[in-house]
Amino acid sequence: MLHLFVEQTVNGIVTGNIYGLIAVGLALVFGVAGIVNFAHGSVFMSGAYIGWLCIATLRLPLVPGLLVAMAACALLGAAIEFLIVRKTLGSSQMAPLLATLGASYIIDQGARLVFGPYTQPFKTDLPKLQLSLFGATVGSIDLIVAGVSLTAALALWLVLRFTGIGRAIRATAQDRDAARQMGVRVGRVNLVTFAVASALGGLAGALIGIYFNSVYPTMGFNAMMKGLVAELLGGMASMPGAIVGGLALGIIESWGVALFGSSYRDLFAFVLLILMLLFRPQGLLGGKRIPRFEPMTGTLPSLAKPVKPPRILAALLVAAAFLLPLASANPYILQILVNAWVYGLLALSLSLFTGTTGQMSMGHAGFLAIGGYASALLSLRLGIPVWASIPIAGIIAAVIGTLIVYPAFRLRGHYLAIATLGVGGIVRLVILNWGSLTNGAMGITNIPPLSIAGFDFVDVRALYWASLAMLVAVAFLQTRLVDSPVGRALRAIRDDETAATSFGVALGRYKAIALAFSGFAAGIAGAFTAHMYAYINHETFGDQVSILGLTMVILGGLGNVWGAVAGSVLLLGLPELFRGFADVRYLVYGLALVLIVRFRPSGIMGID
Predict the structure, then answer these.
(1) How confident is the model at residue 346 (pLDDT cuts 50, 70, 90)?
(2) Do the domain assignments include residue 301?
């Protein structure tokens, strides 16, 4: 038993050191620039591939290969700050966050195009020595990875403590305006901070590739989530806390996998993330108070002056949409629009919660997953007609989602955004591991199609009309809600929660109303998707779906019902014109998100 304890603890310390490096990079950027850098996971992945090229392919020695990976990632991080993030700082908190998300899309899809979607083995010439410690085996790779990680962390501490640029970084982190008045070039400090953080992220990526003997294009997201959890454990801007949090997460994860199996590996991180956000968001080494953030939507201009077409024009557009299948029977075009109408429901749900209410959600795909599985199980196992199971599934998604997220409503800004991301991940992992209910990784097959009065909606025109009818109904209800006294309360929460509270607005109650309606819309979208394709699994509604929905909302204009629909049509319709280049579709989405946030933050249906 002792040897098992030692072995799992050593494994946890090694991986925890790497998580700590990732967390230190995130903490650096958060402390100096005040943003969560969601491109950090993609930089981590880039470091893994560059290390693989240098060490496994070009056969460079370990240290030079790691230094090349760090240098390349430092340049990548500096480019992200200079070309993408810098112009968005000083507007809303949402703008730089979304900009880094777009950069992450671009980098991930670029790696997929260059290296392919498959896992590459990371073979090294490192010695295969093994040591015996209390009956457990400790390999030389364990010692090398841990030693390099600790050396990098120590070097960073020395730079921050004893160099001029280190003092400038610490001064900017403590008080940005005061540092500027004292002559600190804050822009250069931001650039250096992104470069240093990215160098550490690239080193962590190369080390994790060596440790697990593999690299692949999607490895960045999970690594970033582990870094976020480690950062939250120690304190969002605390670098010593990041190291402590990384070690704690690594040990917890290692023992969790030993006790419950590898399929639960990521679940521990997501659950720990939610628990920390709910009970100690300032972290173990943080202060006594939670940092106060303004609403994520902040000063985005689309919130003040959304464009609305006249009612007559709106009615004509809706009528034309319903008549389109009679004028064109092209099934390809109609299927594209079916997908656009379904994603329009997701965009509407995000527009209400994020745009109208000012609460950032990055895990809305979880609502689609709950709705899809609920409707599939209701129709298959309980025999409930599909026309009834879809709205019931929407209600289930609204209730479950609101109950899960409700405790996080006391959080604001980045904390709430991270919490919703964690909730979405937990939903997906529960679906994966609850095999008796969801059939696990195999998913649910033979889901019956939508049927009303004995008529099955399997023809593309029937699906078109059904999905459009749902979209129009939800859009009408949402418009009524936004124009009601409830809508005014939601906008008050978005603009100033403190002022809204002073006027008697119950924050938790109105946020719950917004989330419930939002969850219902997303839930019926997921349910319709399940019955349309007759199959779903835990990957059907991944994190990319949530980010795609956010991109649609930003493109159309936050808080704008018509803009949400327009954004879904444009983002799903235009890439189909280049279907021969399907591999670059998500790269286009990332580029679109970056360009929108940078040059048109009001969206196409907003007024600057």
Answers:
(1) very high
(2) no
Mind listing the pLDDT tens digit for each residue in 260-309?
777 777 777 888 878 887 777 777 766 555 554 445 544 344 444 556 67
**For residues 445 and 531, what is the distance between their CA atoms, to the nearest angstrom?**
10
More confident residue, 305 or 555: 555
Instruction: State pLDDT tens for residues 197-217.
Output: 999 999 999 999 988 888 998
**Distance separating alpha carbons of residues 75 and 503, to the nearest angstrom:** 49
Supply the pLDDT for residue 578. Answer: 52
> Which SS3 state, helix, strand or coil, does residue 132 take?
strand
263 and 312 in a common domain = no
Mean pLDDT of 78-82: 92
Please report, in angstroms and rounded to a whole number, the separation of the first and last CA atoms in the chain: 66
Domain that holds residue 268: 2-279
| SS3 call for 451 | strand
The answer to whether 32 touches 160, Cβ cutoff 8 Å, is no
Measuring CA to CA, which residue among 237, 232, 231 is closest to residue 176? 237
Within this chain, do residues 185 and 43 fall inside the same structural domain, yes or no?
Answer: yes
272 and 315 share a domain? no
| Number of domains making up the chain | 2
Distance CA 148, CA 144 (A): 6
Both 481 and 385 in a single domain? yes
Contact yes or no for 411/282 (Cβ under 8 A)? no
Distance CA 410, CA 390 (A): 31
**399 in Cβ contact with 577 (< 8 Å):** no
Query: Is residue 296 a part of any domain in this protein?
Result: no
The pTM of this model reads: 0.84
Question: How distant, in Å, are the alpha carbons of 73, 109, 235 from that of 102?
Answer: 17, 11, 26
User: Measured between alpha carbons, how far is residue 357 from residues 295, 367, 489 in Å?
Assistant: 9, 18, 9
CA atoms within 13 A on the CB side of 232: 27
| DSSP letters for 248-312 | HHHHHHHHHHHHH-GGGHHHHHHHHHHHHHHH-TT-TTS-SSPPP---TTTT-GGGT-B----HH
Q: What's residue 5's pLDDT?
A: 66
Please answer whether residues 346 and 551 qualify as being in contact, where contact means their C-beta atoms are separated by less than 8 angstroms: no
53: Cβ contacts below 8 Å, ≥ 6 apart: none
Residue 395 CB contacts under 8 Å (≥ 6 apart), including other chains? 520, 523
